[in-house]
Amino acid sequence: MKPKIDQEKCIGCGTCPAIDGEVFEMQADNKAHVKEGVDYNAHQNQIEEAKSACPTQAIEVE
After folding, report:
1. N or C end of the chain: smaller count of CB under 10 Å?
2. How many angstroms separate the CA atoms of 49 and 27, rounded?
3. pLDDT tens for each residue of 25-62
4. CATH of the structural domain 3-61, one choice from 3.30.70.360, 3.20.20.140, 3.30.70.20, 3.10.20.740
5. Whole-model pTM above 0.85?
6. What does the chain look like in DSSP terms, one character per residue?
7. CA-to-CA distance for 52 and 13, rounded, in angstroms?
């Protein structure tokens, strides 16, 4: 399960990196991005929590 963030929907609220900073990070464009090289399966619960908490539903899971 790999998360993906729709950059057009992301408003940069910071909810997802607050829930799991090992998977999500804020970048210079003031939007959240998914970090590479992470064992996403080990963070499955946090990814689902971030997806549910996203106010614009910008997080998708592949």
Report:
1. C
2. 21
3. 999 999 999 999 999 999 999 999 999 999 999 999 98
4. 3.30.70.20
5. yes
6. --EEE-TTT-----HHHHH-TTTEEE-TTSSEEEPSS--GGGGHHHHHHHHHH-TT--EEE-
7. 14
